[in-house]
Fold each of these.
Amino acid sequence: MHTLPTIDFTNKKNLKPGSTSWLATALEATRALEEYGCFIAEFDKVTPELNDAVFHGLEDLFDIPIETKVLNKSTKPLYGYVGQIPFIPLYESMGFDYSNTLDGVRSFIEVMWPNGNEAFRCVFNLCFPVSANVLAYNNLVTELEEMVTRMVFETYGVEKYLDAHRKMVTYLCRGMKYRPPVENETNMGFVPHTDKDFITVLHQNGVNGLEVKARDGEWFRVEFEPSSYIVMSGDAAMAWSNERLYSPFHRVTMNGKESRYSIAQFSFLEGIIETPKEFVDEEHPLLFKPFDHLKYLDFYNKEENRRLECALRTYCGV
Ligand SMILES: O=C(O)CCC(=O)C(=O)O
Ligand SMILES: [Fe+2]
């Protein structure tokens, strides 16, 4: 039986880079990403009030009539409204387009008009409802993602590449709803997959359902509180680290009668991902050629590539 490690990132740990508790936490986090490809992070920057507001916002969002939701279109893969996937009928999701730049959240070209408790926002030619709460939430969760990324770079002694990495990071935030299955319906909420990004931070409304496949092939359930987050390494982190970090298969299975809402923040890199030479030696030959992360997403999103066991290996494996 596997249990995912829980790592404390709360204020009481007073995590300051270089401190004893920072170094210990960095080692713990890196080892967990190597062994399981994920861990549970206790993190208290998002207040319970903001947390509730984000999930109420998601409920309102998914309650909007389907005719309106489908107006949220995007040419970018995984952005916009994704609903009614035939083989996973319980699942709906909405991607929010936002990016962090060095001077904070990039401001959108905004046109807002009210719809119930939400405001519709028009970004370039993408229209979608996003509340200020989601943006506030994203900024706080980014702090967790930044801490973990820094810890991993430092633990591996490759911190000299961190600044360049940070300048390339761009985010996708996706809100998801899983309704409970009706009688005789599959309880598959989301099919097994690995994340294609660098680091994912995943959060849920208190209804469990996530399952992770361990390195030994065993699927195990991950249960976590509304005050905790799952931090997961994706395919890009696996390739970058020459497979020190693990990108685990995971899925969602729905049990019980309550809807599950989750929110995931994915970090993608705009540019070329290259394995630092520090990860390569005679015992550890280079496994992935340098690759353009966003072009890899385009590759993965082609129908014929979606079912590959490891799309990244096909795309740029040595
Ligand atoms: O909803 C979840 O807990 C998982 C979602 C997920 O794995 C994904 O969007 O990549
Ligand atoms: Fe995922």
Note: The longest helix spans residues 132-155.
Amino acid sequence: MATRAARLSAEPAAGQAATVRGLTRSFGDRRVLGGIDLDIARGEFVALLGRSGSGKSTLLRVLAGLDREARGEIGVDAAVAVSFQEPRLVPWKRVLANVALGLRGHDPVGRARAALAEVGLTKHLNAWPLTLSGGEAQRVSLARALVREPALLLLDEPFGALDALTRISMHRLVLDLWERHRPGILLVTHDVDEALLLADRVLVLDEGRIAHESAVPLARPRHRDHHDLVALRAGLLRRLGVDPEETA
Ligand SMILES: Nc1ncnc2c1ncn2[C@@H]1O[C@H](COP(=O)(O)OP(=O)(O)OP(=O)(O)O)[C@@H](O)[C@H]1O
């Protein structure tokens, strides 16, 4: 099959934040992504699960435009923002300056301040990044992504390093921000429950392909012991090669 060069600047299909067809990515002889087809609609929340090394971060980096070596048809809205597991703040700039960094257009500092208020960090505008807790730093990272008003927000394990209680409050915050701004979201996570509590659709990446997809047609906020979620969880865990009984 002929593969076309990536067209990262291509527009996604109408109504979509991202449209990907036949995306492949190899490192040397090793093909990590072997023909990904993926649509993320505007305003849709999609979670991506997969075993360690299955290529989740690679896919996310391609969508973010950070990896230009992939092949296939890749249409991503120009307004794309990313937040990683480690917040990647500039240590010698205060919180407000971190969020305003590189912003163009009208009143960057005012917009940065408003984004920080949305994530509940008004008190920390002048703090240095290294003085923040993990959860606070992750909120700054989210504010920095949001202030760009992305049509597509890419989240790479953003809560993976946080303690359980902070993670729960971050879930609430992300849902709140998503409902207010309605970007398309692709959330990479190892946590099946996180995927089921947040996403409209959960994808499983395996052997370089989207091997499975579960729709989660439940209103939010969701409860992890809801019987539909229990059944979906068991199915997803099996897809990931885990015995659901072991994690009960
Ligand atoms: N720059 C690179 N050079 C060579 N190999 C790479 C590179 N980036 C990723 N890989 C390989 O591609 C595979 C997929 O990596 P990736 O980080 O996308 O997996 P992942 O699903 O995000 O894993 P994890 O859940 O552990 O974060 C891994 O085997 C990794 O070693």
Note: The radius of gyration is 18 Å.
Amino acid sequence: MGRDGQLPLFETKAAKGRILFGLYAVSTFVGICLICVYRLIHLPEEGKVGRWAWIGLFLSELGYILYWFITVTVRLKPIYRYTFKDRLSQRYEKVLPGIDIFVCTANPIIEPPTMVINTVLSVMAYDYPPEKLSVYLSDDGGSCLTFYALLEASQFSKLWLPFCKKFKVEPRCPEAYFTSTPEPHHDDPLMAEEWSSIKKLYEDMRNRIESAMKVGQISEEIRKQHKGFGEWDLVSDPRNHQTILQILIDGRDGKAMDVEGQPLPTLVYLSREKRPKYAHNFKAGAMNALIRVSSRISNGEIILNVDCDMYSNNSESVKDALCFLMDEETGHEIAYVQFPQCFNNITKNDLYACSLNVITEVELAGFDSNGGPCYIGTGCFHRREALCGKKYDMDCEREQTTRNNDGKIEESASVLEETCKVLASCSYEDNTQWGKEMGLKYGCPVEDVLTGLSIQCRGWKSIYFTPERKAFLGVAPTTLLQTLIQHKRWIEGDFQIFLSRYCPFTYGHKRIPLKLQISYCIFLLWGPNCLPTLYYVAMPSLCLLKGISLFPKISSLWILPFAYVMSSSCAYSLGEFIWCGGTLLGWWNDQRMWVFKRTTSFFFGCSETILKQLGFSRSSFAVTSKVADEEESKRFEQEVMEFGAASPMFTILATLALLNLFTFVGGITRVIIDMQAQVLDSLLLQILLCGVLVLMNLPVYHGLFFRKDATRMPCSVTYQSIAFALLACSLALY
Ligand SMILES: O=c1ccn([C@@H]2O[C@H](COP(=O)(O)OP(=O)(O)O[C@H]3O[C@H](CO)[C@@H](O)[C@H](O)[C@H]3O)[C@@H](O)[C@H]2O)c(=O)[nH]1
Ligand SMILES: [Mn+2]
């Protein structure tokens, strides 16, 4: 029972099956120790071939072991949360806080305006008093087409919101709703009628927006609809323009009503000022401008942040989040409630391992029990003051009960638009703490993780919540290259944090629990993982070619710890993957993607970070495309791996694939020619490892040699990789 004898607004349950996990962890640990002993006592003598290969392998294994300890720490005691929304309504229905929702977009071509406004409409339609909701769209693309789409959405919302509320529809993202729900049956003629008419209206709107997109500009006729279009007369370049701020729906205005006479949420379009001279700090800069502008317009106590593709799939999420933030016992110390990042375009076997299932189902739940999840940039409800830099202290507890929603601004919308513009100007942040101690932090491609860490270091707690009905659904990358590039950005940011003064072990020392410091490293140390993996996929195979054995003989007892650690790790990860809703083939794809990501994204990300530390390279943010053309979608649906581009990442992948193919053939030949049991005995494990890598790389061979379509491996990559692989093999042989 909570404070004052009230029942709590949420409860926490520990994951089951921890004994089994403990058994796995302890027995694997024993195996690991034995492997280390073996490596030490069998170290080839000085001068003998293979000594350095052996030492390198041992170092790689030590790297893996270190990382394995981190993964175990995260998995010790995952917890899951459950909310009681009825209790929240009973106690607080009349005093619910204001919620400001920030949607960020940056590029109208790869983030189409129809998708953006679908997200906007889905969050406008939350099951929450509309007068307490304000939705802000930040458009870093500075596009009048996005503005036009939002204008259309503001009008469509007058019909869409009452429809959603009347029939309690889910999801409240129109596109997702109409594609996922079959036409209602005739036993509910009222709904059937409204359904078809609103569907038609939605499609008309979508067509209008899409035809404007095709033309690439706004017609005179549309321009007349709103004064806001006039702003674009002054815009010549999306990277060089004044602040554009338009309040499309002013929730304070009594006339802002839907067709049923109910109030509408406030809706604001913001494209912050951009000038070539000023760094705009990507999404973090956009978020900070939104924080300031919204503080003048609606000043909601809670801020929800979503990426433009992450529509709300569950109209109750706001209430779910408030169950944590308003809980009488612990609510006052919680800075943010993070929901998982889920996707609506994952195929059955998830070829590019984009679902992040294990991260969202297991690892973040583990973070939660170790001190609170990190902030992952989207689907996160923040307490405004915590995001703005406030330290947690005992006052926060007292304030919890005395806070009320006052300080309403009385200015008219157009006056507000003018007075707020300066808050989104380039120079506003000069000589302020914005981007440092206030708002989202600058200078890191994963601003989210860094910001979350610093909030936790200021004494706040955070909560991870996975509701049964998914809260948000977004678009995962649909090509191999997009996936690898996205991960490269993450790695750069994560590893940069580790090397910076924000390293959890120093910055977090005495501020957050040790187990949380370690947990952070599961992401922050993704990058350096590239070295052991690059070594492991190349060196044992090259040694196989030369006939140097790096593993125990099959006939020796030392094979047992190797066999055990390999099989227990595989079995555990497979079990976990299936438990998280994956398939067997999905697991295999996931394993492949780990190898691919580690040898390319992680490698490039790490190198880039080091170059940046040395001052040779600058921060960037490659926005992930959220659209695919028809052909691309078809291949994605059929789970055919997409190459096509002449990227250095592909050269590495193809080189390693070919290298393993050559060495595998070479190794087998050696065994057959020698025909001595001896050779097989001492090389079998290497042949196996090499064989698994060959199997894993089947799609690469397919792309190199057997495909004719446009997305086969480009010829330049093919030739380069053949040359590199042959070179490596001949170097190994001579
Ligand atoms: O200059 C920019 C660049 C990006 N964005 C927005 O940031 C969001 C995330 O970009 P996306 O390309 O989709 O990156 P993802 O890798 O999918 O994003 C994940 O990783 C990012 C950090 O790398 C976080 O910011 C995101 O919230 C998180 O979802 C999108 O809505 C963009 O429109 C901006 O507003 N301004
Ligand atoms: Mn994204």
Note: The chain is about 55% helix and 10% strand.
Amino acid sequence: MTAPELVSKSRCFHGEVHKYMHQSTATQSKMTFNIYLPDAALTGKEKVPVLYYLSGLTCNEDNMITKGGALAHLSKHQIALVTPDTSPRSCGIPGESDDWELGTGAGFYVDATQEKWSRHYNMYTYVHQELQDLVKEHFAVDALRTSVFGHSMGGHGALMLALRNPGHYRSVSGFAPICHPSTSEWGRKQFTEYLGKDEELWARYDATELVKQYEGERLPILIDQGADDPFYKSKQLQPSHFVIATESSRRNVVLENRVQPGYDHSYWFVQSFMESHIEFHAKHLKQ
Ligand SMILES: N[C@@H](CCC(=O)N[C@@H](CS)C(=O)NCC(=O)O)C(=O)O
């Protein structure tokens, strides 16, 4: 695997934030990501646990790492953070950037099967496999201690990745995750476009459908949802569907679901609960 190309490097909270670009096999395009490495990982003294964060619609690799308020807490726990982009970019697909809910910035963490998108839009393989292989090879992270979290579309991506791959992620959490994409406009629109009309295939990427079938190792899950989030109110997120599916199927998942009065969908909300999510992951990553 060719080494990623360093684009920039900045010191921050007793560690460094690096931005890299690399040619991806999964997406057949250049991809960028940021990685925060605490000093222990930079000196090579020890391999540190690693958290992957998946962003929401319209985001790139920078939104969370610049305004999520995560780095001080990651430094305290000596955990690395990887923030990938949310889609391939500038692939030459007709209309790829015309709609903020589709294409650029909206990859939905699936492997597209529809011809228009299938060459490049393979974000599932990219974030779950290719990027993690690359990070493991080039940085001092302990891949056996990996967890995943995310926001909105990325919160769903995190839940879906963890439920599809029992034992791979120690813990998973979401800030206002889309929870049942087969039943909400955010989800149906993108699944139809990327995966076609076969709803059985959708179910393999839908966190609520996946939790009904989960047979893996014990999976700790934390969800925070702002009560004043307009996308929650308009039923794009549907956390209650996920809660009911979890409770009724009695699967090997331990879910803490919290609704936070007064908070909306923005990074003001995300940064308000970031410390609590990192404490949650640190507990499981250090066991
Ligand atoms: N552009 C949309 C909002 C999209 C949105 O809220 N995106 C969330 C993720 S779903 C986000 O994190 N946006 C980027 C940011 O706040 O930095 C609108 O105008 O309603």
Note: The chain has a mean pLDDT of 97.
